[in-house]
Amino acid sequence: MANSMTAFARSELSTDQGNLAWELRSVNHRYLEVTLRLPEAFRELEGPLRELLRKQVARGKVECTLRFNPAEQQSSELSLNKPLLDQLIRTTEQLGARLHNAGPINPLELLAWPGVVLGEKTDQDDLVKQARSLFDQALKELKEHRAREGAELKQLIIERLDNISDRTAILREMMPTLLTAHRRKLIDRFNDAKLELDSTRVEQEIVLLAQKIDVAEELDRLDTHVVETRRVLDSKDAIGRRLDFLMQEFNREANTLGSKAIDTRSTQAAVDLKVFIEQMREQIQNIE
């Protein structure tokens, strides 16, 4: 599908323990690049969320931010892990007995030991599950946003493809007339110069010139690229890179048409094609 890489989503939930809010932003990027900003208490979510994004998003720079504001009524009182604290004191006393001139036990150093100070017990597991569920909601909204914008980009590209098809059809119909006019112009120049012409040689030169400026092959390839681009746009896979490659092929044919142009009309047609192709290329930079 033609999903855009540019989108934003926000989901919020109020719980007894506080307010949870996810903000997801994505912009265009050559590959998938994920940035997660989580409070320390929710750090265990990082691995599963990265894996989820890899499965559901193919390309883009995605920034995911979780904010948690604890409820005001929650107490900030601290409690001690008494079994661990008792073990630390005993170990410190045993060590002090074996050392000469050992200083007294510093309570602040004991408090700094990991696990000694406990916060108020809360249902942290439940809060993490709520944050995980809320992320699914935000991701769904982000994907819907990407899909809506992608549908608009697809329509813009289809309009440019229609314009390209119109120009190639006009140029194809115009070419016999252009070649005839160019042949007449060459003969007139020879006549104006009052040169003695070998009709057979002139026809050979005109045939060679016609082959040199013939653009039927380029027009056929342009038509093929239009058909392929339409097919890719209807694909269910990530299509951005494939479309980018097709734009390079479009440009190659348009450049060749420009180099073979023999009058202002064919030159203008080549310029129009390059404008349409560039407009498509700019839109495709945002497609996943």
From TrEMBL:
Q: Which cofactor does it need?
A: a divalent metal cation
This chain's protein is named YicC family protein
Q: Which domain of life is it from?
A: Bacteria
The Swiss-Prot or TrEMBL record describes its family as follows: Belongs to the YicC/YloC family.
- Domain (Endoribonuclease YicC-like C-terminal) ranges: 172-288
**Which segments of the protein form a coiled coil according to its record?**
128-159
Name the residues that span the membrane: none
- Recite the UniProt keywords alphabetically: Coiled coil, Endonuclease, Hydrolase, Nuclease
